[in-house]
Predict the 3D structure of the following.
Amino acid sequence: MSLRLAALAIILANVALSGCVNPPQPPRQLPLFLQQGEGQASEETVYTSQPNPTDPPAQQLAPTETNDSDWLPILPAGPDPLAEQARQNLALAMNSTDRIARLEYLETAASYGSGQAHYELAKVFTEGVDRPRNLQLAQEHLLAAVSLDDPEASRVVGWQMIKGQGGYEQNLMGGVAVMEMFAEQSIRTQRELGSLYANLYSDYKLNDPAKGELYLEQAFKSGDTPAALALGKLFIQQGRTAEAVTPLEFASANNDVAAQKILKSLGPNFGVSEPANSESYYQQASALMLVRHGTNDEAKAYALFSLAGDMGHNLAKVELAALSGVAILMEKQRGSGWLEIEKEAILRQQN
């Protein structure tokens, strides 16, 4: 069992002992927080399979020719062939356009101990499209994925505990504890925890907006559009309208209709209701460059800075000079007319 799962078992042991979760003895040595109550799994958030019995290769003891010490040096174990098989089959599954072949690859990857493969199979048996719907089998795959440290499976189990699904009695803080253990590995978990702490969900409130802001900022800076929208909403609720502009502009630039409506409702000083607004273009470009981005994002940001610069925005002109390498690269990749095409696309979108 990994250190993370051991920590999870310790954190949630008190939940089980206090009666918040009422699990029977598990069929395998699953962590305590994963043990379920009686009855079949339910609802759409179900996902999972029996834990794969494959353990990491044991460390090898080095041979010794002397008897000077009772302690023997430990040599690091070599590459794990099972893990490599799991990785290869998972890659084949995720890249396959043949749905039957995809399922076969997923099943093979799961048999070699791929947590992500178990998570994907949990979705298959929950959705009931490529296999008959089987929520019990889905839950087994989900728990197997969690036992193999899959962050998305852990997020789903956390929500099951929060909502009282999947055989768990409802336990808000227990579910949050599960989600937080894997939050660094999942942008979606960061966004959902941020919304929980910031009271952005109508049914579940944790009343810690400062912590919610931290999680939403983290997801936004990784380029998550829904997190940008949620962060903008949080800032507006707190009366921090000027700070809301950057995440909302980012979400708007990524075609989030709700963000576009909010910006328009803020008026011409903040929103994008007037296409010929140099500050709006500048803010949208800045938002794109603030988060993790690729070549296409840089091209769009350059075009937005260019539009702002054409309208006399001095800071936009400074940014254009700093991004001159983007213009050179785009001209090589798309041809000399790339910038005008990009600017026209932006104008069509915002008109």
Observations:
- Residues 295-310 form the longest helix (16 residues).
- Strands lie at 60-61, 74-75.
- Residues 14-29, 38-67 have pLDDT under 50 and may be disordered.
